[in-house]
Amino acid sequence: MAPKIEVIPSGDALGAEIRGLNLSQAMDAETFARVETAFNEHSVICFRDQDLTPEQHIAHATRYGEPQLLFLNHYAMEDHPEILYVSNIQREGRDIGYADAGIVWHTDMSFERTPPRATILHAREIPITEDGVVLGDTLFASATKAYESLSDAMKNRLNGLRVTHDAAGRRRKSKTGLAADNAQHATHELVVHPLVRRHPHTGRRALYVSSGECETIEGMADEEAIALIDELAATIVKDEFIHRHKWQVGDVLMWDNCAVQHLAIHDYALPLRRMMWRITVGYTEVYE
Ligand code: SIN
């Protein structure tokens, strides 16, 4: 018999918790269909209190699409190259993981021709102060609701525009990141995507642009392009479109890169440790 699951919306513009599942066990087709429907509807879903092995994490993630090859593959888990460590933990003075992931608003790997449909994080260690304050939250913004909030005149103006995504952009602008990682990003080719993308499963349209990674719009003067990019980026992150995730150890949280942007809050430092196992799945065309 299929397990009884509950989908509890966050009450924000996006986000829901799914209760009643133990992700270490394979989901039957009916349960998976319900989870996928909830994912498409809420864009960010969280399963609390999980304790997955790397193999179980990969098996669950692979239900939503093929694991993507990692760009910063020197932060991959030994023996499990699908999993990237997102972490501030160091070994022999060096970061073992991608320590500055998510420092500006973005969607994952938008600088790829076929970026990942979803990103899935399994929280293994969370920074908590001596007073019990949980740090290292992640913010999510609905680029879908932001698009839907635009005037018809603005929607018409955006129709058919194509924007350049630069892997090195946010690092150049924020002046952060390890020199070696920045150099690797700088070698990545520029990719052009529609500025408004149609969701491959729901058909809803979303803004696909960020100030961190985008600087030019095809056929538009630079000054005008930057002004438009910044205006749209500011619209996406309006309070009304935001959901804030407060982490617990054991969370498996996944987000829809076709519909949301996210920002990791770096308000913690060693000796407070944060360790996430991240998998990105599903090579996805960016449809107009
Ligand atoms: C990311 O941007 O992939 C990391 C998000 C986080 O660490 O909260």
Give a topology summary.
Blueprint: E1 6-9, E2 16-19, H1 29-42, E3 44-47, H2 54-62, E4 76-77, E5 80-87, E6 90-91, E7 94-95, E8 116-125, E9 138-142, H3 143-148, H4 152-158, E10 162-165, H5 169-174, H6 179-186, E11 191-194, E12 196-198, E13 205-207, E14 214-217, H7 222-236, E15 242-245, E16 252-256, E17 260-264, E18 275-283
Parallel strand pairs: 2-3
Antiparallel strand pairs: 1-2, 3-16, 4-5, 5-18, 6-7, 8-16, 8-18, 9-15, 9-17, 10-11, 10-14, 12-13
The structure holds succinic acid (SIN).
User: Any idea what the CATH superfamily is called?
Assistant: Clavaminate synthase-like
Number-wise, the strands total: 18
Query: What oligomeric state do the depicted chains represent?
Result: single chain
Radius of gyration: 19 Å
**Helix residue percentage:** 10-25%
Low-confidence stretches at least 5 residues in length (pLDDT < 50)? none
How many independent structural domains? 1
Name the shape in a single word. globular
CATH architecture: 4-Layer Sandwich
Mean model confidence by pLDDT: 93
Terminal CA distance reads 41 Å
Q: Mind telling me the CATH class?
A: Alpha Beta
Main sheet summary: 8 strands, mixed
Helices and strands, in N-to-C order?
Answer: EEHEHEEEEEEHHEHHEEEEHEEEE
What ligands are attached or bound here? Answer: succinic acid
Instruction: Please count the helical segments.
Output: 7
Strand content: 25-35%
Characterise the protein shown here.
Strands 1-2-3-16-8-18-5-4 form an eight-stranded mixed sheet, with helices on one face. Strands 15-9-17 form a three-stranded antiparallel sheet. It has a three-stranded antiparallel sheet with strand order 11-10-14. The chain is built from seven helices and 18 strands. It has helices at 29-42, 54-62, 143-148, 152-158, 169-174, 179-186, 222-236, and strands at 6-9, 16-19, 44-47, 76-77, 80-87, 90-91, 94-95, 116-125, 138-142, 162-165, 191-194, 196-198, 205-207, 214-217, 242-245, 252-256, 260-264, 275-283. It has 288 residues and is an alpha+beta fold. The longest helix has 15 residues, at 222-236. The structure holds succinic acid.
